[in-house]
Write a structure and sequence with these properties.
The complex is a heterodimer. Chain A is an all-alpha fold. Chain A contains eight helices and no strands. The chains are: A mainly alpha, B mainly alpha. Chains A and B meet through helix 2, helix 3 and helix 4 of A and helix 4 and helix 5 of B.
Amino acid sequence: MDPSSVVPNFVPQIITNFYPLAIIIAILTAAIGLSGVIIERDDFQKILIIQIVTYAMLIIVAAVGTDLAEALILPGLVVSLAEILAVTEVLIFREYIKRGISYPRLKEYKPIDMEVLKTAIPMTSLLCVVYGTILTGFTGGAVAGAGILIYLFIGEPKGLSHDFWEEMSGVSGLAWCLWLLGFLLYFLNPRLWLVALFMSGGGIIVKVALKFGLLGILNREEFNK
Amino acid sequence: MNEITNLSGPIIGHIPFIDIVLYISPFSLALVAVIAAFTAFLALSKPELRSVTRFGEDVVRTTTVERKEARFRRFMTILCGIALTGVVTTGDLFNFALFVSLTGITNMGIFAGVKDAHVLDATFHYGLVLMICSLPLFGGVAMILANTGTLSMGVLANIHTNPILNMSRTLLLIGAIGEGALAPFFATKVEMIRAKGAPYINMMHLSSLMVFTRVIEVLLILG
């Protein structure tokens, strides 16, 4: 089929011409990843290198460049994540069986003492949170959440009680309700689209950001005992 | 719709599941009946007790499967049956790819709890093949979408084929072969089937058969 019949007229020709380029880049990426799998002998390294092949798959899906392709990337990403999790579990279980143990033995390690790890953390996380707030929506929530995550993982926050984070998870749930209400309003009364947009956009950023933050709290509570 | 009705008889009904469009034809109904019967048979049966004789000893040992492990495998078997039902009834190309890869993951899950280093080694390599083959599977689907602008099999059946579409179909075939552990990739499957706990591991044969049957039908529909 002629591509001009599928692509709408208002799409510039240069955008359409990017598609073969994206496919070539994806094939090159896949070739790099597959040659790495052939060369590499260590099983764990193999899993990491195969991720490059998965990225090539995402490039091919993203190259379509429509709303539908955007909706298809997420299932593709979830499938690849599920596969890597399952393969990693099998690898861990196999190593336990081979060594005849049933629990992990972690090595003692000493954290690297660098000044930049103490001074750069608040600035980096603040930049992430500000930029995420400007972006809004799901992407902004992810960026702002990454900022909170960096602060909780690497920096050592003081003066925040346990109850504070419990309340934050409550706020996350309320923000999710706001998001749902925004969508509902959008369908019930489309004339109020601006209010609905702000409700859902604001709700999703708070929800996603705080959900990312919860990962950091889990890290603090589970591993830093 | 012409190709679909030529291949598998008149369409009996659609099951609208928001965006997952399932359709039922006499062909898919027969496949679903086989899957349901086989899954029910496996889910209701007990794990085997395998006897192992050793050279140099006058002993016959009976190996058992732990209750927890057997329950996990039974769960994975039922999940694999559900995924296969999705594979044979779906009318959307991307959902077909998703269900095929879900079949692969559940297949791996059936073997993941086996306490045998050889079997786990083979399962690990099967998992690597799964991850690599998601590239041609989803890549082929995405190229079909880019080329024709649709993913619905009912619409795709009426579109005439061209060289790029043929290449996408080849990619789709390679991906489905890898996920279903078919011909060039089945070497690890042979090792995996040495695992104990017989009734559940037979699900892998059924999934290979069903994925193969369905992918051939899909390729004929697209052509």
